[in-house]
Amino acid sequence: MLARMTGQQLLEWSVYAEMEPFGEERADLRMGILAAATVNAMTRTKESDPVAKPEDFLPRFGPTPDPSPNSENEFGEGGEEDEDAEMRKKMEIAMKVDAYFSALAAAKKT
Predict the structure, then answer these.
(1) 3-state per-residue secondary structure call for the chain
(2) 44-96: pLDDT as tens digits
(3) What is the pTM of this model?
(4) Cβ-count burial of 27 within 10 angstroms (0-12 exposed, 13-18 middle, 19+ buried)?
(5) What is the domain partition of the chain in residue ranges?
(6) Phi and psi at residue 44, in whole multiples of 5°?
(7) Lowest-confidence segment of 11-15, 29-33, 55-59 by average pLDDT
(8) pLDDT of 66
(9) Residue 21 phi/psi, 5° resolution?
């Protein structure tokens, strides 16, 4: 039998993945940590030399971030408005996915 995921479950997994990344994102982070440690060990000869961070080695996909004042800063922190908008967007996507799978299940019953 085909397992179905509701929009609410999708939203919950999405939130969980942001709090505790798994899969390829986690693997990229591990490699970023390893790369930063290696670069720092091999290139830093004095305290004033720049420190490599794991984020420097993470792949970036998708569009370039918007540098507007309301966008996230370099530490991934945005304003409350950004967080609310992001949550509304996720809820909307979850509801659409839920509606899609509900319609698909209803169509299979007929």
Answers:
(1) CCCCCCHHHHHHHHHHHHHCCCCHHHHHHHHHHHHHHHHHHHHCCCCCCCCCCHHHHCCCCCCCCCCCCCCCCCCCCCCHHHHHHHHHHHHHHHHHHHHHHHHHHHHHHC
(2) 888 889 999 999 999 887 766 555 555 555 455 555 667 788 878 877 877 77
(3) 0.43
(4) exposed
(5) 25-61, 80-110
(6) -85, 110
(7) 11-15
(8) 59
(9) -60, 145
Closest CA to 55 of 73, 78, 28, 82: 28
Dist. CA 85–CA 8, nearest whole Å: 17
Vertex 8: Cα angle to 16 and 62 (nearest 5): 60
8 band by pLDDT with thresholds 50, 70 and 90: confident
Question: Residue 94's pLDDT is what?
Answer: 75
Which residue is it, tokens 């919950």? 12
